[in-house]
TrEMBL record:
Annotated RagB/SusD domain residues: 268-575
Domain SusD-like N-terminal: 93-216
Source organism: Dyadobacter chenhuakuii
Name the record gives this protein: RagB/SusD family nutrient uptake outer membrane protein
InterPro entries: SusD-like_N, SusD_RagB_dom, TPR-like_helical_dom_sf
Keywords, in A-Z order: Cell outer membrane, Membrane, Signal
TM region(s), chain numbering: none
Superkingdom in the source lineage: Bacteria
Entry's localization field: Cell outer membrane
UniProt similarity note: Belongs to the SusD family.
Pfam family, one: SusD_RagB
Length: 584
C-alpha cells in the first residue's frame, strides 16, 4: 500500500469542519484550537492540502499545443479569447487557484500559534508554503503578476468584495513572494523522509528543484526578453543548490530510462511525485488515467489518445548521438526506427515494433493499412503510439486501475535546468557535463571524443538550442514541451505556418498478399518488412488550419469574470483595454 497521506482522507475546512481524517475521526467534534494543537489533526490538514494541489498526469489543450502529439487546439488555430484560459477563479472553490490558496492561507495563519513543537510546526508549514508557491506560479506563468493574497480573506466574488478587491502585484513581486515561500520550505523540510509511509512528501530538494524551475522560467525570453544576466545567475544558483541537496540525500538518475516510472518508494529520480492507488479503509480509489488513455484501444482497454507526431518521431537522434539530418548520422528514412537513440524505442511505439505489453514480452504492434483500410480495429491517426510509462506487466483487466505514480519533477529535469542556467552565465563546460550524463544513461554511444554525439565547440546560442532539444527528447510527453516553447517564445519560429504531420504505412500488395504477410509477419525481421513490403506516406494532421500562435498568448488574458468581480484588476497589454505590463 502506498502512503496514505497523498490521498484525500478528509477535507479539514475550518469553516465547516465535518469530514474525517487519517483514523476516520469525525472532525465536527473538534474546534479550531483542537485541530491545530493535535499532531494528527494538523497533519491531516496538510494531507488535505496535498490532495488539493498535487499535479496529475498531463492532459488537455496545453498538451495538444505542441509538436509532440496530434489534436485540434484553439492555441494553434489562433482563436483564443479573453475567457479561454480561465484558471484565475472568482469564488471560494477547491477547484480553482484562489480557492486552494485560501485553504493554504487558513493553515499558515493558524499554525504559528499552535502549542505543537516549533520544529514540527515549521515542518508542516514548509510543506504548505511549497504548495502556495506552486499555486502562485501556476497563475504567474499563465498571466504574469497576480494579486498576492497571503491571508485567508474572502475570495473575489463573495460579499467581502471590497476586502478581496486586491490589485495585481507586478510579476517581479509575485516571483519574489514565490521564492520567499520556497526558501521557507527549503529551510524547514528534511532532505529525505525516513519513514517509507512518508514517500511522496515534499523534501528540501524538491522545494529547491521547483525554485530552480521557476527562476529558469523567469530568466527565459518570455519573462526576460533583454537577456538580463542577473536572472540567469540566480537561476544557476538555485539549480546548483537543488542538485547539491538532492545528491546529498541519495537522489540521482535512475539506472534505467525505461523502468524509472515503475520504481515507486525510494525511486532516486522521483524528486516530486504524486502517488496513486492509496488505500482508504478497504477501498482503493485513486487511479491515474494515463495508461488507460494511451495504450492502443484494441488491446482490450484504453483509447490510444496520446499519439506522437512524425515531427516528434524524427526529433530523436541516432544511437551515435547525431541528429538525423546531420552528416554521418546514418539515418535511413526507409528504416526510420533503426539505430536510433534508445529513448526512441522506449518512448514511441510504431508499426512492427516489439512491445512488451499486457505481460506479453514478444508482442508485435501492427498498424499498417491494406487498400486504405487499417489492420487495427481502430487505427492510430499519426501512425504511432506513446509507450512511455505504460506498465508492460499490467493485465488487460487492471489497466483502468493503473497506479503508476506521476513524477512531476525528475532528477533529469533538474540536471537539464542546471545545464540551461549554466549556459545562461556562459559556464558551457558545466552544461556539457549534465547533457553527457543524461545521454550516457540513455544508452547513446560516447564516441571517440566522449561527447555522446554533441558538437564539442558549441556557442552559448547553440548550447541553448541543444538543451531545448535534449529536453524535448528526455521529457517527451511529460507536459513540459508547451511551457518550454512558450518560455523561449519559439512557437512562431518553429511552428507557425506549418501543419503537424503523421504517416500512413501501407502494405505493398503487389509484393505480397495480405493473407501471406499476416501469417508470416511476426517471424520476419523488421528491416525486411520495411525494405520489401511497406511504404511510408506522410500526411497532414492539422487539416483545418495551419498553425497560428499569436504573440499575446505569451501572457494570457485575465478572464472577464475576474475583471467584473474585482474592479482593481488590470488586463494584460495586448488584450482589449489592457494596461498591465507582465514584464515588470
Amino acid at each position: 500500500m502506498k502512503p496514505q497521506h497523498i490521498l484525500l482522507l478528509a477535507a479539514v475546512l475550518l469553516t465547516s469542519g465535518c469530514e474525517k481524517v487519517l483514523d476516520k475521526t469525525d472532525l465536527s467534534a473538534f474546534n479550531e484550537e483542537q485541530v491545530f494543537n493535535d499532531t494528527l489533526l494538523a497533519r491531516g490538514y496538510v494531507d488535505y492540502v496535498y490532495d488539493q494541489n498535487l499535479p496529475v498526469w498531463p492532459t488537455g489543450d496545453f498538451q495538444k499545443a505542441t509538436d509532440e502529439i496530434s489534436g485540434e487546439t484553439r492555441f494553434f488555430e489562433g482563436t483564443v479569447q479573453v475567457n479561454t484560459v480561465a484558471d484565475f477563479g472568482t469564488s471560494v472553490n477547491a477547484t480553482n487557484n484562489y480557492g486552494k490558496i485560501r485553504s493554504i492561507n487558513q493553515f499558515l495563519a493558524k499554525m504559528p500559534a499552535s502549542a505543537l513543537s516549533e520544529g514540527y510546526k515549521k515542518q508542516l508549514m514548509g510543506q504548505v508554503t511549497f504548495f502556495r508557491a506552486y499555486r502562485y506560479f501556476d497563475l504567474v506563468q499563465l498571466y504574469g503578476g497576480v494579486p498576492l493574497v497571503l491571508e485567508p480573506l474572502g475570495a473575489i466574488g463573495e460579499e467581502e468584495k471590497e476586502q478581496a478587491a486586491i490589485p495585481r502585484s507586478s510579476t517581479s513581486e509575485s516571483i519574489q513572494q514565490i521564492v520567499t515561500d520556497l526558501n521557507f520550505s527549503i529551510e524547514n523540510l528534511p532532505g529525505k523522509w525516513n519513514d517509507s509511509n512518508d514517500w511522496g512528501r515534499i523534501t528540501s530538494g524538491a522545494a529547491a528543484g521547483f525554485k530552480g524551475r521557476i527562476l529558469l522560467h523567469y530568466a527565459s525570453p518570455q519573462f526576460n526578453p533583454t537577456d538580463l544576466p542577473e536572472r540567469w545567475q540566480v537561476a544557476y544558483d538555485a539549480n546548483k543548490q537543488a542538485i547539491e541537496l538532492l545528491k546529498a540525500n541519495g537522489f540521482g538518475l535512475h539506472q534505467s530510462f525505461k523502468d524509472l516510472w515503475f520504481t515507486e518508494t525510494n525511486n532516486p529520480e522521483a524528486v516530486w511525485v504524486t502517488s496513486y492507488n492509496n488505500k482508504v479503509g478497504d477501498q482503493i480509489n485513486k487511479n491515474q488515467t494515463w495508461d488507460n488513455n494511451t495504450r492502443p484501444s484494441y488491446l482490450g482497454t484504453g483509447s490510444g489518445s496520446n499519439q506522437p507526431t512524425w515531427e516528434m518521431a524524427q526529433a530523436f537522434p541516432m544511437k551515435n548521438g547525431k541528429n538525423i539530418e546531420e552528416k554521418g548520422s546514418g539515418y535511413d528514412p526507409k528504416l526510420f526506427y533503426k539505430n536510433r537513440d534508445p529513448r526512441f524505442d522506449n518512448t514511441i511505439a510504431y508499426n512492427g515494433a516489439t512491445w512488451h505489453i499486457n505481460g506479453n514480452t514478444n508482442y508485435r504492434l501492427w498498424t499498417y493499412f491494406v487498400n486504405n483500410k487499417t489492420v487495427e480495429q481502430k487505427a492510430t491517426v499519426t501512425g504511432f503510439y506513446v509507450r512511455k510509462a505504460i506498465d508492460p506487466n499490467l493485465p488487460t483487466g487492471a489497466v483502468a486501475n493503473s497506479g503508476t505514480d506521476w513524477i512531476e519533477m525528475r532528477y533529469a529535469e533538474v540536471m537539464l535546468n542546471l545545464a540551461e542556467a549554466a549556459c545562461g552565465i556562459n559556464k558551457l563546460d558545466e552544461a556539457y557535463t549534465q547533457l553527457k550524463a543524461i545521454r550516457q544513461r540513455a544508452g547513446i554511444d560516447p564516441g571517440a571524443d566522449g561527447f555522446y554525439g554533441l558538437s564539442p565547440k558549441m556557442t552559448r546560442a547553440q548550447m541553448f538550442q541543444a538543451i531545448l532539444h535534449e529536453r524535448q527528447i528526455e521529457l517527451a510527453f511529460e507536459g513540459k514541451r508547451f511551457w518550454d516553447l512558450r518560455r523561449w517564445k519559439q512557437f512562431e519560429t518553429r511552428l507557425n505556418g506549418k501543419r503537424r504531420t503523421g504517416v500512413t504505412i501501407n502494405l505493398k500488395t503487389s509484393a505480397i498478399s495480405p493473407e501471406d504477410f499476416a501469417a508470416r509477419r511476426d517471424g520476419m525481421s523488421l528491416d525486411s518488412v520495411y525494405r520489401n513490403y511497406m511504404e511510408i506516406i506522410p500526411k497532414d494532421l492539422d487539416t483545418k488550419y495551419t498553425i497560428k500562435w499569436l504573440p499575446e498568448y505569451y501572457f494570457f488574458a485575465i478572464p472577464s469574470t475576474a475583471l467584473t468581480n474585482n474592479a482593481r484588476l488590470e488586463q494584460n497589454i495586448g488584450w482589449p483595454s489592457g494596461t498591465f505590463d507582465p514584464l515588470k
